[in-house]
Every structure is written in C-alpha cells, then in structure tokens.
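Example 3.2
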Amino acid sequence: QVQLVESGGGLVQAGESVRLACAASGRTFSSYSYSMGWFRQAPGKEREFVTAISWSGGRTYYADSVRGRFTISRDNTKNTAFLQMNSLKPEDTAVYYCAAGRNSYPLSGVVDYEYWGQGTQVTVSS
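Structure, written as tokens:
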C-alpha cells in the first residue's frame, strides 16, 4: 500500500503563489517507480488533471490551463512531490489531490493512478 498526504493549501489572493507538497510513504512506494500526478476538483465539477511527472522527473505533462504558471517537481530522496502554483486565479480554486501510479510516463487520466491523497483546499480570492 501507498499513503499520500498533501499539505500547503490555503487562502490566497489572485496573483499570489502557493506551493503544495505530497509526501508518500509505504513499503510499496519504495519498491516501484511511481509517476506522480496532481488533480483538482472544484465544487460541482469533475476531478480534472493538472500536471504529472515521471519517476525520474525527466518527463512532465501539464494541462493547458496551468502551463506556464504551475511547476511540478519531485524529490525521490524524500518521497515527496511538489506543485508550485504562481499567478493564481480565482478559477484555480479547488481541492487539490496528488496521486501515484505505476506508469512509465506522466499520464492525465484519473484511472491511470492507483493511489490518492485526501486532498488540500486552495482558495483564490479576487
């Protein structure tokens, strides 16, 4: 089993920045090469892909809505993935979830990830 715990959410104003972290644990996580993804879900909407990163960090993939503003990274020595969010907009308001999947490439589908965190709220006021 793999456990994922997000942190770093909160209330910010439009134009500001937030950095989210996702700490992974569990014996299984250390045994396989997991890609990591970030998804978000706003009230009344379906969960949507934000960004993902391969195990090595050499490949990343971004949704068009965040490309150029958000940056995903990871530190495998600490089993932690990060999401740096800059130039935040009110439409970025959502619960942000990290996910882990045994994928060779950073994928964008919810079904591509086996493990999920509980989510952290990010609220951007105008």
